[in-house]
Amino acid sequence: MDFDFIAQLYYGNINPNVRDMPRDSALGRASKAFSDAEEELTNALTGAEKKALLNLLNAHSEIVGTEVFENFCTGFRLGALAILDILAGADQLFPED
After folding, report:
1. Rounded CA gap, 84 and 28, in Å?
2. Do residues 38 and 54 make contact, with C-beta atoms less than 8 angstroms apart?
3. Model confidence, pTM
4. pLDDT digits over 49-70, tens only?
5. DSSP secondary structure string, 27-77?
């Protein structure tokens, strides 16, 4: 079996954050509703209120991005631990009598 995961990762061919989001999915509909509300508020507000909204949206985006990154790292680590556990117990699969 030929694995080239490390090479694919190195060359940027593996990017779990880039995925198509179907517009008719729950996430697609929620994203559209959020975008529409953001546009409506941005157009309706001026001055300090508009700046406060943009600051709020930027802070929220930073929080979500950090959470996604941390969850990805946790999932990756849990997957690696599962593999280690499997490999550590491999000799128990077919014990020699």
Report:
1. 37
2. no
3. 0.68
4. 999 999 999 999 999 999 999 9
5. HHHHHHHHHHHHHHHHHH--HHHHHHHHHHHHHHHHHHHHHHHHHHHHHHH
